[in-house]
Structures are given as structure tokens and as C-alpha cells.
Amino acid sequence: MRRVVVTGLGTINPLGNTVDSSWSSLIKSNSGISKISKFDVDSYPCKIAGSIEEINISDEIVSQRDQRKIDRFIILGLIAADEAIKDSGFVSDNEAAFRSGVMVGSGIGGLDTIYKNSSILDNQGIRKISPFFIPSSLINLLSGHISIKYNLKGPNSSPVTACATGTHAIGDSFTIIKNNKADLMVCGGAEAAICPLGVSGFSAARALCDSYNDNPRKGSRPWDRDRSGFVMGEGAGVLVLEELEHAKKRNANIYAEVKGYGMSGDAFHITKPSEDGNGGFRAMEMALKESKLNNDEIEYVNAHGTSTQVGDIIELSAVERLFVSNKKLFMSSNKSAIGHLLGAAGAVEAVFSIKSMQTKTLPPTLNLDNPDRKTDVNLIPHESISKSVKNVISNSFGFGGTNASLIFGI
Amino acid sequence: MSDIEERVKKIVVEHLGVEEAKIQSDSKFIDDLGADSLDTVELVMAFEEEFGCEIPDDAAEKIVTLKDAVSYLTDNSN
User: Fold this and answer.
1) Which of A94, A167, A268, B44 is most buried, judging by how many CB atoms fall within 10 Å of its CB?
2) How many domains does chain A have?
3) Which of A63, A127, A131 sits opposite B38 (nearest CB)?
4) B15 and A65: CB-CB below 8 Å?
5) B41/A127 Cβ within 8 A
6) What is the CATH number of the domain that holds A242?
7) How large is the ipTM?
């Protein structure tokens, strides 16, 4: 059976523009949430987000000329992909290219570009629409750009499963390599939806936190009694997955193994998770079955934990039910520090899950002042914990009732 | 260099990211200056914006060099 390992990591997120800078910031309990300054939010019920304030884009990654032709989510994705591919040391030659693919998705894609072109069409007419409008906003164009830039001619696709996108991209890539359709996959997710239309849309759906506008750092508070919705974040996470022997042959640094992947559908509601938590439970259970691990061998859950009233407790209950025999389980939510990166969330959280094992440090759940209810699961409030763990599970659940879980081990 | 040529050159530099010194009047946007077909559509839009005119598609197709653009705009701009 073909085994799949992680050989490259890359991310840009509200806590930093690289894996190391954002990870060290995360475990120091820093928050990347602040007041939105890119546009006027006076009339918006939610005025806070995890924004990336400064991006230094080298010409090598995206030239000035090309930046105008691609939406911000593609720029963020290309930055994370460049870090991950360089980190892996893989250089695609003509022979390897056909066995190396890309699967980086996005939840929404080029929303701001669509919004701006829609205004141009209304106000200035059809002749002012840019020829780059469609290719700059299509979700799969990120995978397209990565393939062109790094000569990757294997499977090329982009999942779109809302907030589960990043996790599905990694899991589907794992399956592709396992099934011998590729030896290497560049995979993950990117999102840049902190724009007028994105914030107003999620606000209208009553999904966003609207009670901490004067204290942004306190806004994202998974499992806390006083949580009031999620805080949007932006960024990208990219992993290089590789078949074990392929990685060994080129002496690649191996971070971790992908041990299991599970997915399910709620068949319940367009935005609410099923109340019994059965969807999330079955995704985790499927991943656990594939990993062949016992449930007490999973030591840390990198939770979906969005800080919404309904979702947090449903996930906690599903985790308690599946890992009932594990009395030393740890679980935390990175979203307490970076916000909810939607289609990029699962990918960035996969990067952090792997860093947790590598650095023997479990990141904290910020703002968990008053847990909503009692639990035996240690939710790592406020500060990170030094602990060596060998197997972790990372969850992502999305609108439409889509659920995905990944198990990584070292 | 005419005023029109200077303005056209500036647009080409901005949109194609090429150095001004490399642009000759008979340089082809696609073959010599690295443009693709979408870039040329955008270039024509930028010429229209700068010179306040509308360039019909059949005329736009014939604008393949700096010289073509200058000559068309000299005859047709407001």
C-alpha cells in the first residue's frame, strides 16, 4: 500500500507571512484580529476581521504586471505555494512533472473582483470590463497558476466546499497519491473574502460576531459562554504531499504522514450543522478507520471551532462521543487567533497541526474565559501547552452540511 | 517623438511591464513584447481610455505594433 507523507509547508495568515513567523506568534497567544481598515465599515454590524495588513510580494512570485490580473486570493495562494514547494526542495523536471499535480481550492474565490466588475458593468458599460476579469476570479485558476509556475502536469483541480475546502483538498490529494494517480501533490486552500460584499453577505446570514467591535482581539472565542459568531480571516495554506518512497528517494525532509481522511454530508440544512453532530462524527470516524489507529491514540484535535453558538458545542459533543475512552484528549481552535479563513482554514490548520507535533507544542484557544459547558476534553484555554503528541486529527465543516477530517501522525 | 507616441509608449510600459528602451516603433506586442491575446485586449481598452475614443474590434485586430497604435490614434482620437 502506498503511504503518503508531508514534505513541504507554506502559509500566509493574519499572524504572519510564513510558517515559522505565524506559528511562533500563535503559540505566544497573539491575536491577528483587528478592526477592518481596508474599507469603510461604519454601517456594518461586524467591523472586525483577521486581515493581512502587509504583503511583500517578490517579483519572483508574482510580477507587478501580473498582480493586476489576479484576485487577492490567488496572490495569497501563490505566496503559500512558493513557500511550501521551496520548503519541500522539489523541482519538477520533465519526467516528474506528469506525476505531480495541484489541488488548491477556495471557498468563494475572487469575490471582490466580481463585485468590482459588476459595478463597472452597471456604471460604465460592457466595454470597460477587463479581459482578465474571469480568469482572475475563477477558483481553479489558483491551481492553474501554480501548475504553470512550477511545471506540475499531473492531476489539476480545485475543491469548493465552503469552509471545508482546504481539508478536502488535502484529503483528496492524499487519495490521489494513495491510488497511484500521482506521486506528489501541491494542495491546500486560499481565501480573500474580507471585502464589502463578503462581510455584508456573512453578516446578512447572521454568521458573524457583532458584539466585540470595540475589542477585536476578544471577538473569536470558541466554546466560551459569550461567543457571538465567527470572525472572518484571510490567507492561504499549502502542503506538499508525497508518496513515501518518492520522498525518501530524493532525501526530502518528512514532517508527518497523512494517515486517514474522512468525509460526510449532513443532509440537514444549508448553513446549520446537524444538531446531533452526526455529520462531523462520521467524518472523524471514517478518518480514524482508515488510519487504523485506536481512538485513544489520537491525542490532539485541531478543531473546526468557529466561535458560533451552535457549531462549537455540536463539534465538542461529537469529539467526546468518538473519543470517549480517551481521558487525556486535548483540543483547541486556531480560529481564536486568526479568525475563520473559510476555504483556507483547513489548510492553514493542517500546517499548524503538523507544527504541533513537530515542535511538541499545542496552540491555545484564546478568549476561553468561561467554557460554555463542562467537558473532560482539555480545550487549552489562553496559553499553549508543551506536550509531545504522535497523532492529531483536524476537522473542517462547511455550509451545505459538508464535513471533512484529516489524521496526521509522526 | 510625437505626443501621441509618448502616451502610447507609456501605456505599453505600464501594461506589459517592459522597459521603455526595449520598445521600438515596429515592436510587435505579442511576438516582441511578451503580450498574450488578453493583454492586447486590455491595451486597446487603455488606449480608448487615454484618448477618449472607441476602437472597433476590426480596427483593434489590426493594431499589432506601437506604430499601428500611433497611426490609428493620430487619425481617430479626439
Assistant:
1) A167
2) 1
3) A131
4) yes
5) no
6) 3.40.47.10
7) 0.87
